[in-house]
Amino acid sequence: MKKIIIVFVVIILVGFGAYFLIQWWGANNVAVTPDITKPPTDKQASGTPVVAENKSETVIGKSVQGRDITAYHFGTGDTKVLFVGGIHGGYEWNTTLVAYEMMDYLKANLIAIPKNVQVTVIPVLNPDGLNKVLGTAGRFSTADVTASQAVQVSGRYNANMVDLNRNFDCDWQTTGKWQSKTVSGGSVAFSEPESLAIKNYVEAENPAAVVVFFSAAGGIFSSSCNGGVLPETSTITNLYAKAAGYPAYKSFDFYETTGDMTNWLAKINIPAISVILTTHTDTEWSKNQAGIMAIIQNYAK
Q1: Quick one: 257 exposed, middle or buried, by C-beta within 10 A (0-12, 13-18, 19+)?
Q2: pTM of the entire structure?
Q3: Domain boundaries, the chain
Q4: How far apart are CA 284 and CA 276, in angstroms?
Q5: Based on the number of CB atoms within 10 Å of its own CB, is 98 exposed (0-12), middle (13-18) or buried (19 or more)?
Q6: In angstroms, what CA-CA distances link 223 with 62, 119, 165, 270?
Q7: Dihedral angle of Cα 63, 68, 72, 73, to the nearest 10 degrees
Q8: pLDDT tens, 117-176?
Q9: Domain 57-298 is of which CATH architecture?
Q10: Count of CB atoms within 10 A of residue 18's CB?
Q11: How far is the CA of 194 from the CAs of 98, 198, 252, in angstroms?
């Protein structure tokens, strides 16, 4: 009888031991199913940082003072059309506002973008110059513009005091002209991080056309660089001008310009136009909305 009891107790003890061993093993070796609703951790198993990608926008570079230069994308087509504002920062702040108004319109009317087209807007190419005048390199309103005229003029340049629209590789010179003033074109073409950022972006993306906003002259100007105007450039110059009600010009002849961005684009065979707003304060949105959509629709299949 005692032997039976001893055997029974041993069986019970062995059973409890096996149970607790199994529980311990499961707690320390269970396979965990990832929670796909949670964001990725900062590092992968290899230690490589995980970069979260937002395909609706791309930081294409940094300004002299380290501010982001951001491109915003609308549509997913293979034909890319690029619009650029704020190359002259706070001096031409209305060129940034018209770009933001364009972004608002496209967000609300994505259906207006042809399926084969992607529209990219860079609202501020010179964020340091904009910040100097507005105290921000981001979104603002006309009511926020309280700086004196002298401060606004100083916001034309980047933080190195270079006129970015004299820093591109078409007839580039160390010094250039802005009206009757002498301005810096930089130490070499593309010496400035802002102009280099747009150069690298354009060369990587190869847009079908580029529209750059300036102020103030009131017209649409074709680009060229030591040669005739590209046929496609003539087409989009006239399209925008007719739709928006601006006069069209084959070239900008009010004074000599060197190192101009749109002329550099012509040099690398990309159709480009300058949309020069009539004043330094008005976005003329209804006119420019019509011109912008005429360009976008031109590239529909």
Answers
A1: buried
A2: 0.82
A3: 1-31, 57-298
A4: 11
A5: buried
A6: 26, 20, 13, 9
A7: 90
A8: 999 999 999 999 999 999 999 999 999 999 999 999 999 999 999 999 999 999 999 999
A9: 3-Layer(aba) Sandwich (3.40)
A10: 10
A11: 20, 7, 23
